[in-house]
Amino acid sequence: MVRKNQEEKELEICISCGTETEVKKTDNVIYRSGYIEGAGQLCFKCSQTENLSLAGSFETNEWFRYGL
Ligand SMILES: [Zn+2]
Description:
Elements: H1 4-9, E1 11-13, E2 20-24, E3 35-36, E4 40-41, H2 44-56, H3 62-66
Antiparallel strand pairs: 1-2, 3-4
Bound molecules: zinc ion.
The site of zinc ion (ZN) has 8 residues, from helix 2.
């Protein structure tokens, strides 16, 4: 079976920058990094940005606006 192509389509897209993440849609959200409940999946890069944002700023929605 050719699983590779199917897996590529199963990857989550970053809600912030639109990049394909390494997270599969079938992955349980509790094991994901960069997953925002009610919003979606962030790529590694954006999840790092989000962490900085949450830690250092009261404008926690700033990162969110970029992707929507
Ligand atoms: Zn991203």
